[in-house]
Amino acid sequence: VSLLFCLGVSLVCGAPDFTSERLAVGDITLNVGFVNKDSNGPIFLLLHGFPEAWYSWAALAEDLVASVPTAVVVMPDQRGYNMSDKPTDVAAYHIDNLVADVYNLIHVVAGPNGHVHLVAHDWGGCVAYILTSLYP
User: Fold this and answer.
1) Which residue, 57, 59, 70, 118, is most buried by CB atoms nearer than 10 A?
2) Single pTM value for the model
């Protein structure tokens, strides 16, 4: 997993090639936005901050695809955000669960031995930091 931290994010959306779907990742279902979902190019997994959603990455996703036309951009709504599952038990939001969600999502989108470039902002950066510490 490559780790990049991003400090600024635009809230622009509307590109015609954006799609989203709900994916089962472990014990939860996350809503995930995509650009170039069916491409075989490098996968960029973008983790939003608080209180954002997958589409907060729209401008960066467009820039990534402009720079790397084969890029697959994966932008999940993290647990509890937007259209992803929202468990009622506060313990369900422990950082270990958030990290497991992303770990499982990587396996869903890249396969068990797949590689992603992880880009994170704000709260997503905390999740990414722990994830990459545990699963370099």
Assistant:
1) 57
2) 0.87
